[in-house]
Automatic annotation (TrEMBL):
Protein origin, superkingdom: Bacteria
Protein name in the entry: Putative 3-methyladenine DNA glycosylase
UniProt keyword GTP-binding, yes or no: no
The EC number(s) this enzyme carries: 3.2.2.-
Any one Gene Ontology BP term: base-excision repair
UniProt KW keywords: DNA damage, DNA repair, Hydrolase
PANTHER family named among the record's database cross-references: DNA-3-METHYLADENINE GLYCOSYLASE
Catalytic EC class: hydrolase
InterPro entries registered for this protein in UniProt: Formyl_transferase-like_C_sf, MPG, MPG_sf
Protein family membership: Belongs to the DNA glycosylase MPG family.
Any one GO molecular-function label of the UniProt entry: alkylbase DNA N-glycosylase activity
Amino acid sequence: MKSPYVAVAPTELQKSTEELAYQLLNWVLVNETADGLLVGRIVECEMYQGPDDRGAHSYGGKPTDRTRVMYGSPGYAYVYLIYGMYYCLNVVTEAEGVPHAILVRALEPLHGLDTMKRNRMLKTTRNTAELTSGPGKLCQAFGIDRRHYGHPLWASPLYLAHALTPWPSFQVARGPRINIAYAGEARQYPWRFWVYNNPHVSKPTNSVTTLEQALPDPFWG
């Protein structure tokens, strides 16, 4: 199936980490697979800003084999494994040498739900709100793994894209990031962003630091 979605341009990924975190909530993630097109709206993300952010893998500013892509150009995929079994997808941000990235935490599934459920080994009747409501869940559902490390996220088969039509007006909530107990005071930084009241976010009841009206995607004029 030919994708009707328009991939973002590389220049659209050349924003500050904070600007891009807001912008991601206007976009969708697309994976063109042998089993069909998989599409989900990004409804939650977290920004990580090394080398000073103790929550970031790039804390301390010393590149490793795992984090080397974070020190490269913006717009590439940083994929890593957690708990020995779940992959997580991040979008590298900022200029070369600045190791920032944004974790894609949750999606609202839009297309290819049956394939996503098979990938997650779930019954087809399972509540879709749980299908991609977490970074490990969404990578499993979309078939994202180590093969996608360093992939440019404006190019097929895995890419960020504009929605087919503008989303209805929505609010963006900000609050502390999740599952980084090791990060000291950085645990409290309000660097998690999500579509307020969307049922597909991973932790919808987590504390809200700020709530603001989302800006529309400039793609729509």
